[in-house]
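Lecture 7, part 2: worked example. A protein chain together with nickel (II) ion.
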Amino acid sequence: MNLIFDTHAHYDSEGFDSDREQVLKGLPEHGVCHVVNVGATLAGCRASLELAEQYPWIFAGVGVHPEECGDLPEDWLEQVREMSRAPKVVAIGEIGLDYHYEDMAPREVQRDVFEQQILLAKQQNLPVIVHDRDAHGDTMTLLRKHQPRGVVHCFSGSVEMMREVVSLGMYIGLGGVVTFKNARVPVEVAREVPIDRLLLETDAPYMAPVPFRGKRCDSTMIAYSAAKIAEIRGMSTEEVLTRTKANAEHFFSLEGKV
Ligand code: NI
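Predicted complex, written out as structure tokens:
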């Protein structure tokens, strides 16, 4: 039985333009049961919906990423709302805050776009997929305020922050970063996070785990992140994959449907 549930990938990315169909068709032969393809732009969300329609093992997230929220059309939220009604949409994302570079969309615009999409997710009864880079304080302020169902993807905070996210009822998304040599805090988080709140992800085509670091990532590589997490926690890789797959099915309300 295929045990890899990739809760966060971007197969609409141009990194897959040359061989997208081949890669996606091959996933089930290589241990992958499901992928949530996460939109970042309005066009990316449409592409995400198309992939979900085309491949039975793909579901879609729709949302506007903080890096993409600087120049949105007036009706952007209506567009996301409309797309979120499609049958295979399982989350609002990727949404959040990114304060890494100075020249990104103004922080107040990012916060506004994030907050409006959290409210949309609550209205639509969908979980949020949260991107938080160098913005832990403001991210937590908004999560505390609205308490959405959701996951903080590619979690980069401390163990203390992880505990607060979990206490809000949310999940922690971990991927290739746990395998990196310099990963100290992510390893602590992987050890301490309650197993029933852990989701595995790639962020493909980015964040390939060791030994593929720097190369193009795809969902099959989750096996390497899972093996590392298994080693950290003293579990078997199969158990990590089985537990996180069940978590993902619960998180995305797919129990009994897949
Ligand atoms: Ni992403």
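The mean pLDDT is 97. The pocket of nickel (II) ion is lined by residues 8, 10, 38, 94, 203 (CB under 6 Å). Keep this in mind for problem set question 3.
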